[in-house]
Specification:
Chain lengths: 72, 386
């Protein structure tokens, strides 16, 4: 699988009212991440919550969904 | 192109109606519009249906002839338009285009949605079908989540506050309480709005429009024939539909809806008016942040000023420029496929001076803004006394 590298949080939210597929995941943080080169994609945040402007690191794909975590 | 007029309107109540099916709601609205326009079903030359997700919500497909024949309209084109929450705005745009081009003289447009037969997680999933299924939706985005991310970014870039968002909800509930057909006729306080249950941060339940059943219909004719159908024709002065990316992460700037800006520019040009001339509007407040962005993108206020203007009361029923005197999607309800034609009905009532307790004072030039998805479809209609 591709390593998406690191990026910056463009925007984010924490979801409490889920779609059917994710009823067991709430609350979860969803974000739009701006990658190097300016490309943006929507992914999930693992672990510590992030805010706009925070740097994040790609962790892995789970069921084709990219997961990131806050860069320490 | 011929000038086109609204000759009749018809709405059902918006709400949760466990005993009503999709077709009975659509038929009620359609028949009311025909009666309001003193027309018979046999005079209708084409039937346009706006409906987002009838097949997913109810399992029924082939909806346009299913509904038109139940109204008594047979032997004419009957077609369903799907453009997410702008489905009936889009159906209306195409119907007006056909009448303007001279294809038909008497056309009925119905918008309908039946949503409350499903539980909220299923509704979230069906509505998310208007987003990018290979990206944001797969990652867990719901529509509240997408607009929450829009709100976060708008707050970051322009300093928009929670109080400013809540002011939109408080105002729309005040208006909706005066609307006998509204889903939630309940006044709420700023404190309640701020303390609502979180749905997707920073949005609470009071920032989100309602899951509703309902239908709304509009009968249109060429302006020159409108007096055969009504004593109070309302002219469609300008109308435009434009589009943009479906996925939120493909848009350059998510604090603005590019399609709203482009469709508004076209509609203003067609009508020969400017943003400042619009006296009142029904805008697509699927979420409180969407109303704030709408009044910015329509040019009512400078970019970034939508929040302060809303909190200061500029959009109140008796403010400088009333927005969503009907109660909006927030209080009136949001049966998504019915919202576009519902807005047209509400603007027409205002121009006719038939809005009762919700009547705005300056009522000769109104605008309806219907948004699909997170801004991928926009339909703007400008209406005025004929």
């Amino acid at each position: 699988m591709t390593d998406l590298g690191s990026g910056t949080i463009y925007t984010e939210t924490v979801v409490y009212s889920p779609p059917e597929a994710y009823v067991n995941d709430v609350p979860y943080q969803l974000a739009i991440i701006e990658l190097a080169g300016g490309r943006r994609l929507t992914g999930r945040i693992d672990g510590e919550r992030v805010q706009i402007g925070d740097r994040v690191q790609f962790a892995e794909f789970r069921n084709n969904v990219p997961f990131f975590h806050k860069q320490s | 192109m011929r000038p086109v007029a609204v000759a009749g309107i018809g709405k059902t109540a918006f709400g949760a109606f466990p005993d009503r099916d999709l077709r009975s709601l659509a038929v009620e609205a359609g028949q009311k519009a025909l009666e309001n326009g003193r027309a018979n079903a046999s005079q209708v030359e084409a039937f346009y249906l706006g409906n987002f997700a009838g097949p997913s919500f109810t399992g029924q497909n082939h909806l346009a002839p299913y509904i038109s024949t139940a109204i008594g309209i047979t032997g004419v084109p009957a077609t369903r338009f799907e453009a997410a929450c702008a489905s009936s705005g889009s159906a209306f745009f195409h119907a007006v285009s056909a009448v303007a081009a001279g294809l038909y003289d008497v056309v009925l447009v119905v918008g309908v949605e039946k949503m409350t037969s499903q539980l909220t997680p299923k509704v979230n999933e069906i509505l998310a079908g208007a987003g990018d299924g290979c990206g944001e939706v797969r990652a867990g985005a719901t529509f509240p989540a997408l607009f929450a991310m829009i709100a976060r970014r708008h707050m970051y870039q322009y300093g928009t506050t929670r109080e400013q968002l809540a002011a939109v909800a408080v105002k729309n509930h005040q208006n909706g309480a005066k609307n006998p057909l509204a889903h939630m006729r309940k006044v709420i306080t700023m404190e309640q709005a701020l303390a609502g249950k979180p749905i997707a941060e920073p949005l609470t339940v009071y920032d989100c429009s309602l899951i509703s059943d309902g239908a709304a219909a509009v009968l249109i004719t060429p302006l020159e024939r409108a007096s055969e159908f009504t004593d109070k024709p309302v002219r469609i002065l300008g109308i435009a539909q434009t589009s943009d990316h479906v996925a939120l992460d493909e848009k350059d700037d998510i604090t603005t809806f590019r399609a709203v800006q482009t469709s508004a520019a076209k509609a203003y040009k067609m009508a020969g008016v400017q943003a400042a001339d619009i006296q009142f509007a029904e805008v697509h407040d699927c979420f409180t942040i969407a109303e704030i962005i709408a009044i910015e993108d329509l040019g009512f206020v400078p970019k970034g000023q939508g929040g302060p203007y809303s909190l200061a009361g500029g959009t109140c029923l008796h403010g400088e420029r009333p927005v969503n005197a009907s109660g909006g999607l927030k209080s009136k309800g949001h049966p998504v496929g019915a919202t576009g034609t519902g807005q047209i009905c509400d603007v027409v009532e205002q121009i006719r001076g038939q809005a009762g307790e919700r009547q705005v004072k300056r009522n000769s030039l109104g605008l309806a803004q219907n948004l699909g998805g997170s801004g991928a479809t926009s339909v703007i209609t400008i209406l005025g006394a004929a």
